[in-house]
Automatic annotation (TrEMBL):
It catalyses: Hydrolysis of terminal non-reducing beta-D-galactose residues in beta-D-galactosides. It comes from the Bacteria. Keywords: Glycosidase, Hydrolase. PROSITE patterns: GLYCOSYL_HYDROL_F2_1, GLYCOSYL_HYDROL_F2_2. It comes from Streptomyces diastatochromogenes. Its EC number is 3.2.1.23. Residues 724-974 form the Beta galactosidase small chain/ domain. Gene3D superfamilies: 2.70.98.10, Galactose-binding domain-like, Glycosidases, Immunoglobulins. Coiled coil: none annotated. It is an enzyme of class 3 (hydrolase). Transmembrane segments: none annotated. This is Beta-galactosidase. Belongs to the glycosyl hydrolase 2 family. GO terms for molecular function: beta-galactosidase activity; carbohydrate binding.
Amino acid sequence: MTDPLSALRPWEAPEVTSWGRLPMNAVDRRSGALPLDGDWRFQLLPAPDAPVGGAWSSSYVPGVWTMQSAGADDLPQYTNVRMPYTEFPPQSPAANPTGVYEREMDVPDDWAGRRIVLQVGAAESVLLVHVDGRPVGISKDSHLAAEFDLTDVVRPGERSVVRLTVVKWSDASHIEDQDQWWHGGITRSVLLYATDPLYLADVTVRAAYDGDLRVDCRVRDTRGALPEGWYVSGDLDGRLLAQDTEFDRVNAEDDRVSDFLGEARVHATIPDVRTWNAETPELYDLTVRLHRPDGTVADISRHRVGFRDVEIVGRDLLVNGERVYIRGVNRHDFHPLTGRTVSYDDMRADLVLLKRFGFNAIRTSHYPNDPALYDLADELGLYVVDEADIESHDHAHEIADDPRYLNAFVDRVSRMVLRDKNHPSVIIWSLGNESDYGANHDAAAGWVRRHDPTRPLQYEGAAKRGWADPDVASDIACPMYAPIVDCVAHALSGEQTKPLIQCEYSHAMGNSNGTLADHWAAIESTPGLQGGFIWEFWDHGILQRVSDGRPAGRAGAGLYDNGVAAPGHRWAYGGDFGEPLHDGAFIADGVVFPDRTAKPVLYEHRELAAPVRIRCYQHEGIVLANHQHFRGLDWLAARWELSLADGRVLTGPAELPDLRPGETAAVPLPFTLPEDGGEAWLTLRVTTAEDEAWAPRGTEVCAPQVRLRAAAVTEPGPAAPGRTVRVDDDGLLVHPLLTAAPVLSLWRAPTDNDELGGIARRWRTWGLDTLVRKVVSVRHEGETVTVLAEYAGTAGVVRHRQEFTPVEGGVRVTESAELPPEFDDVARVGSVFETVPGLDLLEWFGQGPWESYPDRSTGAPVGHYALPVDELFTPYLRPQESGGRHGVRRFRLSASDATGIAVELDEPRQVSVTRYRAEDLTAAAHHDELVPRQGCVVHLDAAHRGLGTASCGPDTAPSYLVPAGVHRWSWTLRAL
Ligand code: GAL
Ligand code: MG
């Protein structure tokens, strides 16, 4: 007999968004529920209409079968824009993996007489529910829960069999075409709960900045009419708010109508309310009780309430009347072992990390996240742009106006709003991502605007029609990857009507996020610009066993450290599971590694978001500024640190002035600047003074820095008489500690930005990766040896001059390179050499301690640093240029017996010391393929190209390019 649910073929019927599903609501039923997580019987069918009847294996719920052995050969697949199959919407392919999950559930006997509900946290992409063989319901939307009333299906005290059939490909897949791995399974918890027949069907909390609190309750009774005399009450932090006498029968002319509607409101004004914002996320505990006519409690709903306002005034987005900067990131639900299932602890760790690095906002790209994420955002203080699960990227144009999908658009947006409306953290609704713009969007926007007038709405696809267009479904101009100049021009045009907050900017793929500081300089100096969301939080690398190519799954726990997979494992990206169609490493574009290890860009971001800044140094004092919106500086402690070029570092406690947000104060230097010591830098090490919810006391929050004294200009010293420099016939320096003499380098292992931005292609056309060196002359003049060489590429020749002069203890190298006009944008101009093995410690005076580049160096203060060479390298998933340090003045590279080399540079330069040649990095596709060399590969660059973000978005700014023409640099090499 055909199953009635399958007979509908709901996987190819976009009009069918659900059947038998209860309305979405904001009542949390997790506590007191019967959890149904754990191992379920499982079989994977080749298609949804294939018969069930094969052998059962088992699968862990919540989880995706694509990451578990039960999934056999249906492995993760990564595509960005394109669908993984050619069928047009609403069709799905004939080969359509379908997971059948089954388990028993013992319905408690004390649930007799109660209303019983099954909740499936999330299933992708179509869920069919049967209980004891009876069809119960259908649901779509892979990122929202579905509830089904089982009161008449199960019997308390008895055992029932629940079967969840999950169809992987469907009409819904065409509107879930987000840039991420494709999986199949049940990704969030399943539970069974019971309520009284008289129950709270929904609770809507509106808590305003002025203390006004409205709690609207929707009450239902499964027996039909509501009993005469029911009422609701609420208490806030234990203080009773209102009781029966005060409740207000909304929309009702007489009591009968109100009872019939089942609507009630608790209304109160809280005096001296502590308000909520991302800096001080004050929450109150609200308990709503539904009473039977005799006063006994039938149902309870608990909420954490934050009093705050959000509004747009002119072109400013205001939170509690303040024009807040949005320092956001896009976050997917991702985990390297489970794919899509994330635990509460994982989400907490994500958000804690974001707070520590100065973020104050998340866009839930590109679907409603796990409900716990919003609880955590409320608690830790993060603004949320809550985004509906709609992305039809590959077929955007067809779907946006397709009436068959109208219902799905409204369903997805409205259910998100109904679920998340009570979270103070949610300040903006988003209609979805990259789905063109059509009538289906306007329909969904209409629903939101009527239902929740308290929050702005955004949609990039609509904003694209015109940033200032009042008629499109976006209250915010929210472009993606708009160049800084375009944003500034818009803000200055006089045409701007909406806040400009980029929904995606600064693409974090590989070694990236160049010009982040330039973005923020523009934002903070241009009224109308308010921030944006970095793309994105995660590198979605899946932990994979190299031996059999399968996901390590939950067994991989702990098999990674510091961003690197354990031996025998790697971080898989697109193509690594043998998918013929994929989009490669484009899935690895986050500010954290797959194990949440911070990439260097996070330190850059932290500094740009610093709550305390040093404005300038003048008259023996500095000007400090409070850059927060709501908080004083009393939650911070500080120490000053003075770094002198001569190697001295002096520190002491620093007193932070009492500054309100936006205020500045002149503060005298807490020490006398020593007369000698050369170049001098003052760093303020700012830490949390007490425990914060997201950082224990003493956590560094920022380290603003100011230069107190510039380096004196020094003339190069005279040649050391009587000493010689050895240069061979090929014009190469001979030095006992170098295994490869310094030669010219114009190439770097292309970053993802270099590759996808087409920049590396130009370098290859010019032959910069295969330059052929030819020595032209070697001239001895006194103690000085001058070498002229030519480096021939396919498109031109570079003339390189090196002058070697013996100096006390070593050699001074003075170089110049003349790039022909054809080479007008190269990776670097500088020297590269290699050292003997054993020089494993780098000490330097310059920017650090983490990796920095010319257009990503604001977060790396000047100081004296020391790190093992092996820790200098950043293990980006796809090997590329990495490990650079900007602004290096001098460094020593030493062995454990203190032998080694010291290099002094004529001016602060980009330096890198790694175990890899540029060609080693270029040849490897994954980090685990790299074989470290014994010695060090040292680059000193006269000029190094900025990183930009051209893998998706603008390239670096012109000022960070390395142009053609003559470049000069000099350095001194000494043995220790
Ligand atoms: C955007 C898109 C994101 C992601 C990003 C590139 O266009 O909204 O989902 O694909 O580009 O990584
Ligand atoms: Mg996309």
